[in-house]
Structure formats: structure tokens, C-alpha cells
Write a structure and sequence with these properties.
The chain is of the alpha+beta class and about 260 residues long. It is built from eight helices and twelve strands.
Length: about 260
């Protein structure tokens, strides 16, 4: 994949808004490292012929952006004119209810597309925020509309994103108690990191404990208590946002309601 430099996903500062409008962080210089094109969902869009071909005639330019922690990638209601894939780091999605209360919807990790579920309306359905220094690739819709991008590849990515969203809803929020929900979330992240070619047992959560609690509809204290218990039971260890799954089989058993929680 050809790269033009730029890096990407609770801070709605004036400078963040300026970055969204002016895109001053985009430059023509290539990024060295930081992403793995062969594992990226969008590789078929950028390099539809072959990732091993040095310069196919229909290769498009995917710009990369760098976002710092708390920087806004896009806001709810904003026009969607780009396909965005996370190269490294993570993007938190959130929206607000009528009372102005935040609702954390989830996190998009490296190798996954963000905002693809808003494609049909061409307006983003939620806010997307960088949870730390994050790199993303951006592909303009002009390439989609001009036929440069493979429509089959785009459809495949959209279907994968919809399946991913449904899986999260069913596997996490369908659980009955707090322990099952938290364990299901951890197993879900483990599976997704593995699918993107990363470690299934050691990864950055991308969400704070407050974010996890909000996402699962639980209290922050409940999350802290459960993480401590999971650690004592030899299931997993969490240091800040870094997670290490010690016994994935046992953790999955808790998620499935087979544990004594």
C-alpha cells in the first residue's frame, strides 16, 4: 500500500476542530513502519491487484493521519467523505443522549475500519476519538465513485463490519451478569486482535475502565472489582490499558456463564 504521511481515534478542543477542517497533519512524506498493509482490511481497496505487485496501474493513494490522545477523528452528523482504517492505536466511538450523557459504543482497533456502518447515509452516526496516539489510512470516496476502488472489496469490507458489530452486540451485551459481560468483551477483543494478525493474549484495551463501564452499562467500581478478581483467579492481568490474558479458555467459560461469578 502506498502511504502519504498523517496519523489518526475526550477533548473537543478548538485545535482539534481546526485539524478536522484544515488537515494540516497530512504531508506527502511516507511513513516508515507503524502499519502492516498485508493485514489491513482495506488492502484490496488500495491494492486491488496484489499486495506484492510493486506498482499496479490502478493503485490509489491512501493518506495516513496521526492523531494524538483525545483528538477528534470525526463528529456525529459530519459528512462522511472518507473510508478510514486504523493502522495502529485505537478509536473510541461515542454518542450523547438527549440529556447530554455520554454513551461509549465501543472501540475500533488496528486493522479495522471505523465509521463504515454510516456509509449508507454518508453522515457519521457517532463521534470518533483517538484513545492514544493513533494512525489511520484514509481513502477518498472519489476513488470509490470513480471505480478506482474495487466495489467487490468494498462490499466485502462492509459485510465484515456489519458482522463484527452484530457479534459485539450479541456476544457482549447479551450476557446476563457483569462478570459475563466483561469476560465476553475481553474475549471479543482477543478474537479481533488475532483476526488482525496480532497477539490474542497481550494487547492494549484502547478503553479506560470508565469507558469499559460505560460501554457495558456497569459502574466503574464493578469493573475494577472484577478485574481484580479475574487477576486473582489467574484469568487475566490488566495494567493501565494493557491486558494480558493468562487463561483464555477459562475466561471464555466465564463469558459463557460457566464460571462461578
Amino acid at each position: 500500500m502506498y502511504h502519504s504521511k498523517s496519523i489518526l481515534s475526550e477533548n473537543f478542543s478548538e485545535s482539534a476542530n481546526e485539524n478536522l477542517t484544515q488537515r494540516n497533519d497530512v504531508s506527502p512524506n511516507p511513513i516508515k513502519g507503524g502499519s502492516n498493509c498485508a493485514l489491513c482490511q482495506a488492502v484490496a481497496l488500495c491494492q486491488p491487484q496484489s499486495i506484492s505487485t510493486s506498482s499496479p496501474p490502478n493503485r490509489i493513494e491512501a493518506k495516513q493521519r496521526v492523531l494524538k490522545r483525545g483528538q477528534v477523528l470525526f463528529k456525529q452528523g459530519q459528512s462522511q467523505d472518507l473510508l478510514v482504517v486504523v493502522c495502529s492505536g485505537a478509536i473510541k466511538s461515542r454518542m450523547y443522549n438527549r440529556n447530554g450523557e455520554e454513551r461509549v459504543l465501543g472501540v475500533t482497533i488496528a486493522g479495522e475500519a471505523v465509521g463504515l456502518d454510516s456509509l449508507s447515509k454518508r453522515k457519521y452516526a457517532y463521534d470518533a476519538i483517538a484513545t492514544g496516539e493513533t494512525v489511520v489510512c484514509e481513502i477518498g470516496y472519489k476513488d470509490v465513485l470513480s471505480g478506482t476502488v474495487s466495489q467487490a472489496a468494498l462490499y466485502k469490507m462492509l459485510m465484515a463490519q456489519m458482522a463484527h458489530n452484530n457479534k459485539i452486540l450479541n456476544s457482549v451485551m447479551g450476557r446476563k451478569n457483569a462478570a459475563e459481560r466483561l469476560a465476553a468483551l475481553m474475549c471479543n477483543l482477543s478474537n479481533r486482535f488475532a483476526a488482525s494478525g496480532y497477539s490474542a493474549t497481550e494487547f492494549n484495551l484502547g478503553l479506560s475502565r470508565s469507558d469499559i463501564a460505560n460501554c457495558l452499562g456497569l459502574a466503574k467500581e464493578t469493573i475494577s472489582r472484577l478485574l481484580t478478581r479475574f487477576s486473582k483467579d489467574g484469568l487475566l492481568a490488566v495494567n493501565a490499558k494493557r491486558a494480558r490474558i493468562i487463561n483464555l479458555t477459562a475466561l471464555q467459560a466465564v463469558a459463557d456463564g460457566a464460571g462461578n461469578y
